[in-house]
Design brief:
The protein is an alpha+beta fold. It has 9 helices and 17 strands. α6 crosses α8. InterPro entries: Rieske_2Fe-2S, Rieske_2Fe-2S_sf, Ring_hydroxy_dOase_asu_C_dom, Rng_hydr_dOase-A.
Length: 434
């Protein structure tokens, strides 16, 4: 579903005029001189002006993963999504579609909805009770003595919303990137067997990481650091991202085991008609993507100490628990794991140049019963621990970027997806600044 957008703050002219010409020229030069194959210069991670550009050029122009359909199962259900200076209301409407509204009252700018999630009929601002329909139309505003007040001129501003394979995306650009439709056609067949509309939220975790959002994304795009994830390494092969010739001696046995498990997984996928091939265009399309189905260690079923299933309920029409994980990366703010027994979604929402909210959501079959079909602590344990470890890693990097002696270091060959993310980011910002 799409709704109209009216967001003058995103215009290039507004962005250019909001920064001094000399400062904008310096920043433009930083992008032009970026050293390929290396981490970014410190200002990319520390400068409020560059963060402001990121909010305009990336989060103000591109499709952002906001939520799953499991978070909005019924009409009137909503989530609020905040990043940088923006706040959006993502609302399930009576027709089953999604309305995306700016969470800014048209009277004096108060937040209309203050909870992160909930259910509502009309939207009522708590300041002066201006009341809006789920479509954002102003339907009530007491205006004593006002004879020329036209309510039709003061509806909530809208943004674009799209729903694909149970995932909800938002975009604030006047004209959103057109190729997202093609990217959705790529990932929909991979996700369809998991049937996200028939899932429910088991748990959601919000972590604020004291680091720039790009450091959070860089950390996710490689497994060079995966020795620091002991809980995850029980099921996720720590050789992820490696190829023949790059495997260190201490991981050779793991590599062989992974190779055998992947071959067995691909045979099962062929038997069930489930796509598994790697599709990767992280920086060669505007809506960058990487997706594949990959084997897990142990029993090969889920993120547990022995790889055994964590929920007794299969998702969708899947007929086998031992189907590894479908892993998907989307630029610029999300990654996902789709397993036979549950799904984990990750969304990154920048707060400022040195703080980022990471939202992790665990989904299970909508008829799964906590305590009978799954143990919530066991279901969430691996990624809760991994998230805390990643938080520590990216905060170390932020501390380094703040140091006067920091300079960009080279990415290793196994970190090629980090380079792809940074290359995508630089291309998009340069297009916007141009």
């Amino acid at each position: 579903m799409s709704v109209s957008v009216n967001l003058p703050l995103n215009s290039r002219g507004k962005l250019a005029s909001s920064l001094p010409a000399e400062q904008l020229a310096e920043i433009t030069e930083l992008f032009e001189n970026r050293l390929e194959g290396h981490s970014l210069d410190a200002p990319f991670y520390t400068d409020p002006a560059i963060f402001k550009i990121d909010m305009h050029a990336i989060f103000g122009q591109h499709w952002i993963f906001a939520a799953s359909v499991a978070e909005l199962p019924e009409p009137g259900d909503y989530v609020t999504v905040d990043y940088g200076p923006y706040s959006l209301i993502v609302l399930r409407n009576d027709e089953g579609g999604v309305n995306v509204l700016h969470n800014v009252c048209r009277h004096r700018g108060a937040r209309v909805l203050t909870e992160s999630t909930g259910s509502t009929g009309n939207l009522v601002c708590g300041y002066h009770s201006w009341t809006y329909s789920p479509e954002g139309n102003l339907i009530h505003a007491s205006a004593p003595g006002e004879t020329k007040f036209d309510k039709s001129c003061f509806g909530l501003k809208r943004a674009h919303g799209r729903e694909y394979a149970g995932l909800i995306f938002v975009c604030m650009a006047d004209e959103p990137p057109a190729d997202f439709e093609e990217t959705a056609k790529i990932f929909e067949p991979y996700l369809a067997p998991h049937d996200l509309p028939k899932t429910k939220v088991a748990y959601q975790q919000n972590i604020i990481e004291e680091a720039n959002w790009k450091l959070v994304m860089e950390n996710n795009r490689e497994c060079y650091h995966c020795d620091g994830h002991p809980e995850l390494a029980c099921s996720l092969f720590p050789t992820w991202g490696l190829t023949e010739g790059l495997v260190p001696a201490h991981l050779e046995e793991v590599w062989d085991r992974n190779t055998q498990a992947q071959a067995a997984l691909e045979k099962r996928c062929q038997r069930y008609g489930i796509p598994y091939e790697v599709f990767e265009e992280l920086d060669t399309r505007v809506a960058g993507i990487r997706i594949s189905r990959e084997s897990l260690d142990g029993d090969g079923e889920s993120f547990s100490p022995d790889g055994h299933r964590l929920s007794k309920k299969l998702l969708g029409d899947l007929r086998d628990f031992r189907l590894g994980r479908c892993s998907m990366h989307l630029q610029p703010n999300s990654w996902f794991h789709f397993l036979s027994d549950h799904v984990v979604t990750f969304a990154v929402f920048p707060i400022n140049e040195h703080q980022t909210l990471v939202r992790t959501t665990w989904l299970v079959a909508d008829d799964a019963v906590e305590g009978d079909d799954y143990d919530l602590e066991k279901l969430t344990h691996t990624w809760k621990q991994t998230n805390l470890q990643d938080k520590a890693f990216v905060e170390l990097c932020q501390a380094g970027a703040n140091s006067p002696v920091y300079e960009p270091g080279p990415y290793m060959k196994s970190e090629y997806q980090v380079e792809a993310f940074i290359n995508w980011y630089v291309q998009r910002v340069q297009e916007h600044l141009a």
